[in-house]
Amino acid sequence: MAKQLFIRKYRWTSGVALLILLSVITAILSQAKWKNELGYAFTDAKGYYSYLPAAFIHHSFALDTEEKVKYASFKKTDDGKPFIKYTMGNAFCYLPGFLMAHGVASISSYESNGYTLPYQIAFITTALLFLFLSLRLAVKILSRFYDDKTIALTFFLVFLGTNYFHYATSYLSYSHIYSFYFILLFLERSWRVLERFTWKNSLYAGLAFGMMTLIRPVDGVFLIFPIIYGVSNIDTFKKRINYILSHIPQVLFFLLTAVIVWVPQLMYNYSVFEKITINSYKGEKFYFLDPEIWNALFSFNNGWLIYTPLMIFGIIGCFILLKKKEYSWLILTLIYIYVISSWWCWWYVGFGNRAFVNLSAFLLLPLSSCIAYIRSRKRLYYPFFILLLLGVVLNQFQTYQFEKDALRYEAMTPESYLHSFGTLHPTFEFFDLLEKYDTQYAKEGKNVLHVWNYDTLAVLTPSELQGAELGNQDMYKGSFKFKIPEANSFIICAESDETLENLSLYLKLLDSTGQVKDGYGKVNTKSLGNARIQQRMYYRFRYGVNEKDSLQFFFFNKKLEEGKVHELKIYALHAKDSLVFEESVDE
Length: 587
What we know:
Layout: H1 11-31, H2 43-49, H3 51-56, H4 66-69, E1 75-76, E2 82-83, H5 89-106, H6 117-142, H7 148-161, H8 164-167, H9 176-195, H10 199-215, H11 225-228, H12 234-245, H13 248-273, H14 293-298, H15 304-307, H16 312-322, H17 328-342, H18 356-362, H19 364-375, H20 378-403, H21 414-420, H22 428-432, E3 436-437, H23 439-443, E4 448-460, E5 468-470, E6 476-482, E7 489-497, E8 504-510, E9 516-520, E10 524-529, E11 532-540, E12 550-556, E13 563-581
Antiparallel strand pairs: 1-2, 3-4, 4-13, 5-13, 6-12, 7-11, 7-13, 8-9, 8-12, 10-11
Helix pairs in contact: 1-6, 1-7, 5-6, 6-9, 7-19, 7-20, 9-10, 9-18, 10-13, 16-19
């Protein structure tokens, strides 16, 4: 069955799979993340990866020397002992590639420190391998129920039209593409177990469950799937329980296999804490009585369906399956959304609520069910196909925006999203439209935002700059110097001839000796009609303004355009970071 990918019978699926692989490889090569100091071992992935240099380079998990902690990601126990916060599931996935890279580095000129080019190539090849395995396994699952074109459309939507693509390229070392594969493997083996509860099927199901929980323990909720899949009433539920109880040896073997996968983690826990079960996320928890379901799905701060809107068809597919008395898909989807949205950091810092990439794996079949339903009705199919194309284009563009910082990993708002929509390079104003949730309050289960508020201190209309004429010899025009105590932000507006569309409104911050501390001049331009345009520049000085500093404004006519600035206004503001409580908080 696995050979169905890349054969003539499944030519549409094979073609889309090839497109996916080529798109992912092209994105990886264009991003060139391996050129960074630690390459793909950054933020969370740095923590996942820390086990391997510790085990195979330093030969010790004790992070007790400067060399061992130089690149490692760790926390400290209450008594100051450093430990790796994350479970080691990802490290298991990296391991074969790491060992080959370590061998290459050892016999070449590359430093064998776990971070040079051979190790970065290992990250990439490992990610591509898991992508390929996921495609093959998805065909194996979906071909049980759906035809070639339905599977091809499902692949096109999930792998190119959701945030999976981002985590298969720029963030390929993160956990999600590995979780995706093991969730698929667990689903596929669950079906086999329900058909024939053999020792082999128990073994593979146990390995899949052990790995997917070792990568992300929250995915343990999928254990419910083989218990409730195909259950439509009390009688079928009783039969399922009896079926499971009649295979107790195989059930125990499944559990034993999963536990064996966890043994290295339990041994590590014991070596650090002298007990095998620990909470490495101390101070971080779930708030099951106050889940942020709406925000997790629809907030501009990483709401899943805001940044991955095409997956609404996967949820619709769960309802379509209800007609076939298949309740398990909807039940588990709701449970997973509930659990994910109960975590204190419900926005899961990243692109488009990354925790839901794992749910995308589970929703492959409901999504295919929805697509098959739509394909059977021509009136629905053509509008759907247009939405699919637009959704994939949007996802690819927003993925690129994320790389260019025009979309942020957290703190996005409706205003910042609309301000940046369709642009590749954010203005400074974009950053001041962000509203970041306060981490400490969030850990207490409270939504408290950091918001910029402004007081207008003065409005300046320098007479010498009103009606300024610029010619093809005037790269710089005017020099208006001023001081406004406590002003740290400025909005500058000009009404000019449309021939000056590239004119910059430049403001410099000077210290007491006249040296430049900061400066900015990028403008937003819109047409006013009558051959005139409005230009607007906003900037908040990043390093603060003290009483000895002064400001200098001038026109920067880089392209030596000719025209007249009819009106100029400078708004001097005082910006302050304020806390805004979204809900009542006991002070």
